[in-house]
Amino acid sequence: MKKDAHAGKDLPDEKMIERIREGEDAFTERLMNKYKDLVRKKAGSLYILGADKEDLIQEGMIGLFKAIRDFDCERDASFATFADLCVSRQMYSAIESAKRKKNLPLNHYVSLDAEIGGTEQSSPDGLDGEPFINSLVAEGQRTPEEHVIEQEAFLRLSSLIETELTALEREVLHLNLTGMPTAQIAKMLGREEKSADNALQRAKGKLKKRLS
């Protein structure tokens, strides 16, 4: 007989995982509902050419379910951290898959909150260190010239990421743009945190140098 999940509404995530392992499936729904805003936030912070936000949300929920299924209370630090990692990994895999299907470069996605450029003075591309989302204007307010300028700037950045960065630097940068912390990036890629951070700094340095 299943117990009422509401009776344990104040349980920590890890305790709810233990209850799920004991067969109390209601706690699975509780955790899915608790972290669905995390999934939506991550999906909303990604801009992917040719991708649908709802598709990303669906992938993120799959990642969340996998986190609930695979979390090990003795091995993993906290469920919140593990869930964040699994959701990001699932979305990243979906992006990779979409890239292969559409034959698009991986750098055709960028975090809407990420700073692009990073120089004090405006670059000729219009990427002047402002968050990318601030450079976007409502669709109906943009002139044809602005469309062209934005597209040219984005294509140049895409080309630089593809041609100037190593495979590791690209991977680290792409994951960083999803909002994933360096420690989680390192864990996901099987690298030391210092190695991942160095790769990220190299990537940013190369792009800033070429865009300045």
Describe the structure.
The chain has 8 helices and 2 strands. It has a two-stranded antiparallel sheet. About 60% of the residues lie in helices and about 5% in strands. It has helices at about 15-20, 25-45, 55-70, 80-100, 145-165, 165-175, 180-190, 195-210, and strands spanning about 45-50, 110. It has about 210 residues and is an all-alpha fold. The protein is elongated and about 55 Å long. The protein has 2 domains: about 10-105, RNA polymerase sigma factor, region 2, helix turn helix motif (Rna Polymerase Sigma Factor, Chain: A), CATH 1.10.1740; about 105-210, no CATH class.
Using brief descriptors, characterize the structure shown.
two-stranded antiparallel sheet; 2 domains; mainly alpha; Rna Polymerase Sigma Factor, Chain: A; 212 residues
Q: Provide the residue-averaged pLDDT.
A: 73
> How many helices?
8
Q: What's the order of the H and E elements?
A: HHEHHEHHHH
Low-confidence region ranges:
103-140
What percent of residues are in strands?
Answer: under 5%
Q: Which class do the helix and strand fractions yield? A: mainly alpha
Q: What is the end-to-end distance?
A: 66 Å
What is the CA-based Rg, rounded? 20 Å
Helix content: 55-70%
Described by strand count, sense and barrel closure, the largest sheet is:
2 strands, antiparallel
Number of strands: 2
Strand order of the largest sheet: 1-2
Shape: elongated
Total domain count: 2
